[in-house]
Design goal:
six-stranded mixed β-sheet; D-Maltodextrin-Binding Protein, domain 2; alpha/beta; 4 domains; 26 strands
Amino acid sequence: MNRKTAIIFLIFFIFAFYLPAAGYGVEKPVRIGVVSMITPVGTVEYYQEIIDYISDKLGSPVEMVYRKTYDEMDRLLEKGSVDAAFICSAPYVEDKRKFGAELLVVPQVNGKVFYKSYIIVHKNSNIKDFDGLEGKTFAFTDPKSNSGRLYPIYQLARNGQNPEDFFKKYVYSYSHNKSVELVAKKVVDGAAVENLIYNYLQQKKSPYSRQTRIIETSPDFGIPPMVTTPKVPTFLKEKMKEILVNMHKDKKGKKILSSMLIEKFVEASDSNYDSVRAMESFVSVFDTEEEEDTVGKNTVFFGAIPRDNPRIAYEKYQPLMDYLSENTSYSFELVLKKNYDDTVTALGHGDIDIAFLGPLTYLHARSEYNAVSILKSITEKGDPFYRSVIIAKDDDSIIRLSDLKGKNFAFAAMKSTSGNLIPRFLLAEDGIHLRELNSYNNFNYHDSVVKWVLKGKYDAGAVREYVAEKYLPLGLKIISTSGPIPTGPIVIGPKTPYTIVEKIKSALLNVNKSEEGLEILKKIDPEMSGGFTEASDQDYEYIRQMINNIPNTCGLRCHPKIRL
């Protein structure tokens, strides 16, 4: 790279990294929240098609925001961090009282907009009714769940009892199908689960649900709704409602709903939830704040920068979380934050213990919080590096980078190495400055970039090479490829205990040395499916030097002195 090219790159690099896309309309995505009613991968698969359907009908980006607990989602709704959310009935009642949450739509199942709670035990258990669970172990789902906690607590309260005295021990599973699994495996004696999910598991022939039986069924409650808040513009609320209540009328929408065993979405009355309010009022006298017990082990929170939408992210990372949970003395939970900066901040503050970061987010975590890179991934090709590519539709309109002058361009997130920073260098190296594009925009996820390019809304975009290769059969082509970029490291924060670090390193360095580990690697991100190797800060030194040298190499003395 000659000096002139290097200067161009560095100028564009610093503007890309520290400045917003001023002068260009950034399309703010609609954000819809979902909570882990079923296990993480199941939850995102359960709702991602609906999210994509809404996006297609709106003609603008819609993002899924996944959280493990109802409490986390309630806070996002209250702050306005999500525009709508699929939540449970009891959280809706609380949220309406607390900050005016509004019903948007509810699912209709078997002609009804009501559901029940089931109390289940193992099929071979001699427990015949709820009273038979006294002195036994029990699984609730979420502390705010109606069917998974409030109903059985209400049953106890009617007899003047509380869970601390009635059960020998109880745990929170944070998903209904996890509760079913715990009963099937005899980890607990009984559990409270939502009938809709239990029936869904039965129809899908879940091996765990077949090992259980129902000993009690609750009365009807208003079905878990999709809610919004007074902060959301009326036009957006009405548009989302219109899309959802008509979803069953077109072929694609009906297929999605059928796969979820939903007939259609309808409007519903707030009075449907009066029975939930009555239970809450009754148990408030008996309910106490209890310590949440986890299923078995201390939890390690493992973050990942959100370069993929939640459905894809969980498919790529969750198998590795399961592997680590089975091969260490800890339970691992995947944490996806809203953006790259939030992931770095959470790592620095100790809210997450360890994280998959990109090269640039690592450098910021290192500079800001003294984070340490411990491992880096090996790709399925056996390389410790990956590449950035610029893509376009597979036609004759765009053949080379010079054809992009006056065109519309889609980048990935502002802090993405391969989706924003390196591609800006590729454009600059070919003489294309941002002002010479007709417009450009940044999208949170690489798959979103591909989607909008294939739809023709943007003429070209930038993504990781592995993402582009996945979509080549759908009419995509690569028009430019970067040089090698070091794979992003696995990074620990300043508060991560040494014992955890060593166990994680040992497990991941040996993941490709067993049949079980090799099977796991086949399921995860291709950029990690070759396994892992030791990493050091030196691996990312040349990127650090590029940033640190900007004030000196620019020649114009117009940039702030930045040290990473």
